[in-house]
Design goal:
single chain, mainly beta, four-stranded antiparallel sheet, 8 strands
């Protein structure tokens, strides 16, 4: 009986340790400013991130708030300690000129399941 109790206590003590094994997504930076650019020149930037956790990181979704901002990413798992990237392209052709700030929501299997990254800039009309 004592042995069984000891085994159960050990298992209970180790459960939180195994539950904590997760991927963690850490971006080098979460915002990028394109500065001033012409409407006819779409802008692209790659956000670099690192999996600082101890399990493979899988990006499940990256989506923007409008069709002028398009994120792309690899569906391949990012191993612990490895880097990955999410490339965001802003094409404001035909949109209102001026300052903008667009969020991209990134969802993954990481402990921080949802992270927002931002692109911003000043698009000038060519007229």
């Amino acid at each position: 009986m004592k042995r069984l109790l000891l085994v159960l206590c050990c298992m209970a003590a180790l459960m939180p340790l195994t539950a904590q094994a997760q991927a963690v997504i850490k971006f080098d930076k979460t915002s990028h400013d394109f500065g001033k650019f012409k409407e006819s020149a779409p802008q692209t930037y790659s956000f670099v991130f690192t999996n600082t956790g101890d399990q493979p990181l899988i990006i499940q979704q990256a989506f923007a708030s409008c069709g002028c901002t398009v994120p792309t990413f690899s569906k391949e798992p990012v191993q612990p300690g490895e880097k990955g990237k999410i490339t965001v392209t802003y094409n404001g052709k035909g949109k209102f000129p001026g300052h903008f700030k667009k969020p991209v929501t990134v969802r993954s299997n990481a402990s921080n399941q949802m992270v927002r990254i931002y692109v911003e800039g000043d698009m000038v009309s060519e007229q």
